[in-house]
Amino acid sequence: MDRTLLFKVLTVVALLGCSSASDHLVNVSRLEMFVDELPDMPRIHSYHVLNGVPKSKPLKIGMFKKKWKFHRDLPPTTVYAFGKTKHTATIPGPTIESLHGVDTHVRWQNHLPPNHILPWDPTIPTAINNTTRGIPTVVHLHGGIHAPESDGSANAWFTSKFNERGPTWSRKTYHYPNNQHPGNLWYHDHAMGLTRVNLLAGLLGSYIIRDPVVEEPLGLPNGDEFDRPLVVFDRSFRTDGSIFMSSIGNNPDIHPQWQPEYFGDAIIVNGKAWPRLTVRRRKYRFRIINASNARFFRFFFSNGLRFTHVASDSAYIEKPVTTNETLVGPSEITDIVVDFSQSKTNVAILANNANYPYPSGDPVNEANGKVMKFIILPDQEVDTSRLPRRLVEYPVVDLSSVTHTRYVAMYEYASKIDEPTHLYLNAKPFEAPVTETPRVGSTEVWYVINLTEDNHPLHIHLGLLKVFDQTALVELEEFKECMTKKNDAVKCNLKKHASGKKVVVGDHEKGWKNVFKMIPGHVTKIAVRFSYIHTNASYSFDATAEPGYVYHCHVLDHEDNAMMRPLKLVN
């Protein structure tokens, strides 16, 4: 059965009361859009300045259960939120502002109650078992270059007051050296088998590394008013305001709750459904994070305004690139400048037209096809910011220095009713022995082979990747059959099958990235760098330490079951 159709059937079942008497869903078409102002999340600096010198300032950031208003006309929603206190905790969490070269030390504190507010599935690999008395959490700084002990290993989880700890837990305080290039990161939960539900509940936030020496000469829009993170995700709600996630799996006899993708009809930006922002006629910088479980966004402006890209994920690109639209997969960050002085209207709607699941699912509707509204003031402004001809150049990939070539195949497995049961990388579960062991300081070439029908955003912890090309696989069914039997791209003659049409990589995505969208039925050739990209210096930490790192699909429902593999660096 088509998974989109099944999702609709399960939703109808829930509305009829067969799933739960309390599953009465909000009809989002009856919620008025653009009634709430766009919030700017609290900003927490991980440093203070003493005698003109920035010094590290230790942080304590907690995870709290609280109520949150997503829309003027919705009842308050029970959520999990990051903050210094329960009162100040927000969804998304506070934006952590850090400086290049100044360490961040964070003690992430779990103040959550024993029982989860969302359904979870005990039949997939998960941190919860029959004896766990609390909600396991662990924080991963996405895009960060730091030691394994601070990476938020899926099994380094802990419950309230650190009463229970996962098998790879080792420390209460995480250390982020911030020795990498300046750019955009984000932090979120990463607990084994619970990432999708913990993020749905609200455990996510933005993190920025700034480097004034590199960035001030660029002259880009700056300051809290003109340089703003936009954290975008989707949610569905019951009429009592609670977050809706179906408690019925697509294969309930196998997985009672797990579904291959979560989609909500309300689009949330900085914690508000379809908010509005009044802007001046000048340039603004928006650091847009797609924090959805599974939804892709293809953003565009209703009035034809254009995006000028200055960075992608955690790294600047070489020069600004202007586009009419931009496709952003789950966990990707697109860093853009919008010049509202070029608008011919006083209103611009940021909209979305990406099918879900992407790319072959349903088209968007009125609710999930709108994101937010910009109200543009009529008077022209003096604008001292600029778009430079060039941004930041990093060393090019030297293919002669490549030390290893790897093949990573993406598989989806189905039940007798042709519904997904689980997904693997290289046909191996997470707990199988590690097979990816790159050397510290090396550059590798990976061929990522997508044998499924979905686009999978691949995220590699620690490493940065650069995309060379994406090529359609010919005689695909023959190749799939061979790969299913042998799981060996060389023996299955990948070179012969990777001879179809090439997909052009957009200029704004040709720089160094933390995530890339793997097209179904294609092989994507990437370079993966396991060192800093802005310097030849060695890591300031031991990247070979336990528990190592991981790489995974960042559709969270896939990652949880179990499209994730260990990554162990060696000297």
Automatic annotation (TrEMBL):
Residues 129-212, 265-354, 418-567 form the Plastocyanin-like domain. GO terms for molecular function: copper ion binding; oxidoreductase activity. Pfam families: Cu-oxidase, Cu-oxidase_2, Cu-oxidase_3. The keyword Cell membrane does not apply. Its cofactor is Cu cation. SUPFAM superfamilies: Cupredoxins. Belongs to the multicopper oxidase family. This is Multicopper oxidase LPR2-like. It comes from Vigna radiata var. radiata. The gene is LOC106769757.
